[in-house]
Design brief:
Elements: H1 12-23, E1 31-37, E2 44-49, E3 60-66, H2 74-86, H3 101-110, H4 114-127, H5 138-151
Parallel strand pairs: 1-3
Antiparallel strand pairs: 2-3
Helix pairs in contact: 1-2, 2-3, 2-4, 4-5
């Protein structure tokens, strides 16, 4: 997939549904809501609820993308969404810790989204320089991307 620049209004639900259906199928039965709003300390965040015991309620994923990302490319937003969803992989529910940023980044990389994660980290550095980046730095992600391109 090449870099896609925003044209008109960005439909966050389409981007998030694509991330889930193609890269995180374990969340495909969840209800999904996405919207732009101010996100404290980051460029995105995700909230996830788990199904009730009777399995009628499939759980819900709510993704917030920071207002500063409105003019970002689709791939940048895709990388931010993928990172935040990756935090929920293997999560057992309330009372259990989420995986670290580095572990979430590893999941995103393993699922083939390193270049998108790189774009998201670069956007975070540019748009929210006050935020401390945990996980992989954009420099480390660039090295991973370069090395994987050299293998092709």
């Amino acid at each position: 997939m090449g870099t896609v620049q925003p044209q008109g209004i960005i439909d966050l639900n389409v981007i998030a549904r694509r991330v889930i259906s193609e890269y995180f199928p374990e969340f495909s039965s969840c209800y999904l809501t996405t919207k732009f709003r101010h996100v404290e300390g980051s460029i995105s965040e995700v909230h996830h609820t788990y199904p009730f015991e009777d399995n009628e309620y499939k759980g819900e994923i709510v993704i917030f993308i920071d207002d500063s990302m409105r003019m970002s490319g689709i791939n940048t937003i895709l990388g931010a969404i993928a990172h935040d969803i990756a935090h929920r992989v293997g999560w057992e529910g309330p009372g259990y810790p989420l995986i670290s940023d580095r572990e979430a980044d590893n999941i995103v990389i393993e699922r083939g989204l390193c270049s998108y994660l790189l774009e998201a980290k670069e956007a975070l550095e540019e748009l929210r320089p006050e935020v401390v980046i945990n996980g992989y730095s954009s420099k480390e992600l660039q090295e991973i991307t370069d090395s994987s391109n050299n293998l092709s």
